[in-house]
Amino acid sequence: MKYFFLYLTFGILFFAFPSAPSLFAQTAGTNSTELLKRIKKEIDVRKDYKQAIELCKKGIKDYPNDVDFLFLYGKACLMNQDPARAQKAVAEILQKAPQYKDAYLLGANIQLVRRNNPAASELVSKGLSRFPGDRDLGLKKLDILKSGGSYWSADNHAVRLLQMFPKDPVVFEACVNYYNSAGNAYLRQGNYTKAAMEFDKVLEMSPANPEALRGNLTVKTRSGDNCNSLSAINRALSEHPGAHEFLMKKVTLLQGMKRYPEALETLKELQKRYPADAKARSLETELRLEAARYYKSTDPYYQYQGVLEKAPGNREALNNAIEMSISHEQPDEAMALINKALKKNPSDRALLTR
């Protein structure tokens, strides 16, 4: 519950009260205005919710007709993990001032904390009946539908919001976040078809969105389609050239597909961009050895030589390179390899025997 309230603090409430246009609108005078400002500071800056509650009680007593104090009291109670008192405050506000829009938003947040999605939805519906087409209430409805896992309804609602507010950056961001969230939810369920549809919606709106690109790639990878996975990685790299995450995924995928020359070429780019990456350095040895084993029936000699350039002490590469030089009737090459290795290990009996 503690972490849920932390999420609430930085998540739901953050966009539920972006402007709070009704705050301070009904104050009785300078004194009440100053008190309201002080309460807001206690809530939003100092995070001292208990002190804010005490100040709200004073405001409610001294200015009984000013519902701003009731609203801030409800908000402070909610942040202080007391949703029951917060809910009573909202009920009182809506009885006294049903036109107080932010009370519907606060009430919905309270019900979400109490995991009562139907009640949250009912409050938002009442708010929308009084304020049709309101952006903040519309966004809260999307949040409630997402929270309840009603993705089909949420999809339709997101479309309506984008149609109503085609140039609104807040709506745009909220819908992008929703589609990504829905895509990840479908991924967890193993429904790759629907997950791909949600991520594709994001990529239509924001082609460079890294979460959607990552999700789209995960869909392709889990479905076992390597060619489509490679296309997804290349698409991600076209939007984010040189991105470490996508370059590494491309190397791994090409390695799995046994397309070693392309994998090594991609790894070379990765090492060039990230010279301090120890994983990329160690991967080269592994990749060349694997390639050499794979191409053993043809001519893996150059692969072993590449390994020895990067890791001169690698015994597997050294032994195989020596054997291949001898089998190809190139004793001078074999002797050069042995002598080079003996410089590092002069008493190595196996090399001396060779």
Instruction: Determine the mean pLDDT.
Output: 88
Question: How many strands, which pairing sense, and closed or not: the largest β-sheet?
Answer: none
In whole angstroms, the N-to-C terminal distance is 70 Å
The SS-based structural class is: mainly alpha
Q: What characteristic shape results from the CA principal axes?
A: elongated
State the assembly state of the protein chains: single chain
Portion of residues in beta strands equals: under 5%
Number of helices: 21
Question: H/E series, N to C?
Answer: HHHHHHHHHHHHHHHHHHHHH
Contiguous low-pLDDT stretches (5 residues minimum) are 1-28
Radius of gyration: 32 Å
Range of helix content: over 70%
What's the number of extended β-strand segments? Answer: 0
What does this structure look like?
- The structure is a single chain.
- The chain is mainly alpha-helical.
- 77% of the residues lie in helices and 0% in strands.
- It is built from 21 helices and no strands.
- The termini are far apart.
Short summary of the structure?
This protein has 354 residues and is an all-alpha fold. 77% of the residues lie in helices and 0% in strands.
Top keywords for this entry?
354 residues, mainly alpha, single chain, 0% strand, 21 helices
Topology summary:
Layout: H1 2-10, H2 12-16, H3 30-44, H4 49-62, H5 67-79, H6 83-96, H7 101-113, H8 117-130, H9 135-147, H10 151-164, H11 169-189, H12 192-205, H13 210-222, H14 226-239, H15 244-256, H16 260-273, H17 278-294, H18 301-310, H19 315-327, H20 331-344, H21 349-353
